Amino acid sequence: MENLQLNLAFDKGEELLRIAQDELCRPEEDVVPYMVYEKAKLATAEYLISYLTHYGIEVHSIDPEVLLNQCREINNTFYELNITPLIQVGKDDDVFVNISSARDFVTIAENTRAIVLRIFG
């Protein structure tokens, strides 16, 4: 059951990341940056959830900041991950989602994926 949950969460993260990446491949005037942000944020959360469920941790949040802190309690490698730009959206009225920040959000999701894969080998 645990491996199934890990795979489902990881697979969901993969799909969300692919959608965000595909959106960035469109002509710039057609890109919806906020959609990229939402998909990248959810992908980041799903990758973190996949890690936590692997260790039998019950997940009660989809907030990437909460999930990342839980992951850091288990493995210091997660301190390499900086998701601050992702979590500032909605918290700081001065933060706007544009093409540049959308690319950054996708990079955060990709980095999260890479760390989870690296840890699981």
Provide a descriptive summary of the structure in words.
- Helix 1 runs antiparallel to helix 2, helix 1 packs antiparallel against helix 5 and helix 2 runs parallel beside helix 3.
- The model has no long low-confidence stretch (mean pLDDT 90).
- Helix content is 69%, strand content 0%.
CATH topology: Four Helix Bundle (Hemerythrin (Met), subunit A)
Could you spell the SSE succession in H and E letters? HHHHH
What share of the residues lie within helices? 55-70%
- The computed structural class is mainly alpha
How many structural units, i.e. domains?
Answer: 1
Largest sheet: none
What's the pLDDT, averaged over the residues?
Answer: 90
Q: What's the quick description here?
A:
The protein is mainly α and 121 residues long.
Give short descriptive properties of this protein.
121 residues, Four Helix Bundle (Hemerythrin (Met), subunit A), mainly alpha
Secondary-structure map with pairings?
Layout lengths: L1 H23 L8 H22 L9 H11 L9 H5 L10 H22 L1
